[in-house]
Amino acid sequence: MLEAWVKKDDVFRREHGWHKSVVYVPMPCTKFSNTSEDTVPKFEVPGLHHRDIVDLVIGCISDRTSRFRHNYHWVPNKLFWIPPMAPHSATSSHPKPLRVYSDCINSDAVLADEEIIRKMDRIPGDDPEMEYVVLPVLIWSDETVLSSFGSATLWPIYIYFGHLSKYIRGRPTEFAAHHLAYIPSLPDSFADYYKSVYGTQPSAEVLRFCRRELFTQIWLLLLNEKFMQAFSRGIVVQCGDSVVRRTFFRIYTYSADYMEKVKIAALKPNSTYMIPQLLTRKDELWEAGMLADIMRRAALRQDDPATHLKIARARRLILEQGFSITSKRVKDLLSEYSLTPTQNAFSVRLAPHGINLYQILAPDLMHEFELGVWRGIFDHLVRLIHAQGDKVIQEFNRRMRLMPKWGRDRIRRFYDDASTRKRMAAHDYKAYLQVIMPVIEGLLPPDDNKTVADMLFELANWHALAKLRMHHDVTLINLERATTHMYAAIRCFADTTCADHTAYELPSETEARTRRARTKTSGINAGEGARRVVNFNVINTFKYYNLGNYVDYIRRSGPTDNYTTQIGELEHRHVKRVFDRTNKVNYERQIALHQQKRSMVASWRARDGYIVPSLRREQNKRAAIALADRSAPVPPTDHYFMSQSRRRPIRLNTWVDEHWNDPAIKTFLPRLYEHLAARILGDESMYSEGEEFTQEQLDGIRILDDRLYKHQYFRINYTTYDLRREQDVIHPRRQADIMVLSPEWDTSHPYWFARVLGIFHAKARYDGPDANQLSRKWRDYDFLWVRWFTYVDSELYSSGFYHRRQPRIQFVNANIHGNDPFSFINPDDVIRTAHILPCPAGPYPLTDELLGPSTLARQVPVEPGVPDNVWDYKFYTVSMFADRDIFMRHHGGGIGHKGHGVSLKQSKAHASRTLRPAVHPASLPDLEYIDEPEDGDPIPAEGADESDEPCAGDEEVIEEDSDTSEQDLQGAEEDVDEDFDGNTVDFEVRDSENEDAEDMHHDIDDGVGSGSDNDDYDAHYDLYAGEGFAPL
Predict the structure, then answer these.
(1) d(C-alpha 626, C-alpha 647), whole Å
(2) Phi, psi for residue 753 in degrees, rounded to 5
(3) What is the pTM for the complete model shown?
(4) Which of 124, 5, 114, 12 is nearest to 65 (CA)?
């Protein structure tokens, strides 16, 4: 019935549906020989549910009813950005264009294939005007548990189309994922069948061999002759936009966890050469970032005929001559590069066409960093804190609970004890990294405090750069240098703090280990329940080493949000929901059928405009909320939205009299009239240093009925660094901190910060001296009442990328004569919300000396049990890593920011770091700031405008002349339960081009010198950057 209704040119024809196939797995056995591999006894594995990849792709791109048919980018392109000129620049020439990497459609790999196809000979019979295009295929696969109880699992393979925008395919609600296959596991009956054939049970090595063979045979079935035809000669398709194109299929990325990557690459996991893409030994992983490692990464693992020959010989020994898989002859053939006797499917199909399968395997930021390196470091930090005593770990948990939430579920409040780390997903660990710096301050000995603070800053800086959704040449250079800084900081932490302190298992870890031991044995040995020593082993893991491969892979395949495994994890939610609707028997087939029906029904709804009941209820709910607020949705072109409701009026004189004893009210009326005078009379600068308004002018300000209208919140629209429109909500009690551009006369800092105390609008006019007809007209004015922060003196606390510290601020002291911490600002001057973290370190973190008791100025709670109207924190930390856009505003170089705040030229200097002596921290002076370089030139403050001279003391400065590929331009971005074991080494690799170490860093702009003014750099940095490591 459904087939009769669906049109014949539709994506949902029966032949484009699911198939059920059988896979045959060869069974080796020691001392059993065979005449050839074809005569080896095979086990039949049923239950492979799959779709034909070519039919699937053709059906999708030829669907004329698809809502994506006009969103496909068929022609790859190079994207460039001409940066705005830096303010006060000494040169009048425009900066050179920068190459931009935003999606896989403008990555090097797609452009290279497009160039090859464009130059190839035309296929006979093709129309001369027919387009030849590349279709990038992106693959995800990961085994997932379908329910919290039971053993039901599913191993799906998802494919996405790279020529569809990542902002579409990355949203699970767009249903851009296509389920290609559900991989079956080797059934339990295999052992019985094996014994019936050979008379013995299969060994562990045989089981591993057969599981690898099963995976390989499945992919050989999926990459069939039709796919290879589409790969080599392309297929002619009339696309959904009615244009006929010859489409060439290309597999660009395969996203999976480490254990699946080594299965794809047919390598032994956690072995000597455990890295799929490189030939780095396991005992060399800790050298990541050193000069020897940089040179070593230039040698890529190759899928060459020599490798194929070794594997073929090993298979003949095992399958034909009856040698054991673990025999010496087999090991001698395969152990050189940790190979396995499995000829993987991608090598069989793609190697003859010059494709190196190892370069397809994509880095995995979520598992490798958030749930890998950072999780391992965080766990060890908790162990070190726990070793300081119960009071210290309780203080750590208390401080974490003090950290404020921020954004719409971006950083949630930490209610539970952070040190227990119960049921934490990747986004939880990411939030810990974003707030932990002021939390951990002072919990460890002073010497270790500096080492840990440096490491945490470098980790957060690297994570923010690696997770950018849009890169350009400068951010990639800074990411490359940030990787070196991060590696050096982690090695310093391992060599000093970890070496000086003995870390033991946490009580929860000891309990879990004891529980596992109890399930394996009937009793517990003596001492089994004692806490064991835990060594810091992160630097010996694959996940740690692979962080150095991200820059090259971003250039090859685009930013990390193109191929992060988080996309596949989100798609798992769909199959888990469907599983609940099955009868739990042969659920793979039921899930497959449901996926097909879901796509079919979605197509019908797209045609007839039907709205599902759940979506209709959501729309009605939003409409009711908007009606209650009397506010329509905010147009994205408007900078802000504030309700014009008059339901909460404030009579000025009455309200001021009611709060006569509040110190915040003393300057309320004068500052209000000054602000309105500036708005009405044309001088809207909130930082005006010119002549003050005369009393006659201020007396000429009239407020209609002497009333202000108060509001609970207002919304700010802003353009992100990657040219997206986003929105923040400012609420005086929940999310009250904002950032604004500093005035031109403040060259020390790019931004000022304030806390919003009130959101008002009023009708006002001016009829004083020199009034005109326009000024006498009643007009609406929106304004914010704020309490200002000020930066801590740089002589007491040095901050910024150069010093590896986030900015530190405090409230303006109202008790100093001439200081007024309160004023009014125009909502148009607000950039967006800021994430301001309290600094709870020190014996007396709170103070009442900045302002007297005030309920108006202290609407945000300080601490539980502390009077909110009396105390402030002495210091606050400005979070530079709250999200990608906040980071780019501090880092500079955001394309959507148009050079406001921190310029591109300043962002280049953010790759430099102050020197840390390569000596034991105990011999360092206990200072809270870093001395200036030896030549005496001051370090430019964070965000300060720089001259065209090189930064003094920088050990890393970009060179002026660039040999990047764009020099001769012609024209102009959960629920994961993965355990991290510090003793388990995981791995996955990068795509690297052969570059000399001295040519790794280039500049794209003029006016920045190269080299270092500090002759002691090598001596200071040798310990952590590697002997003989030249300054970058």
Answers:
(1) 15
(2) -125, 145
(3) 0.85
(4) 12
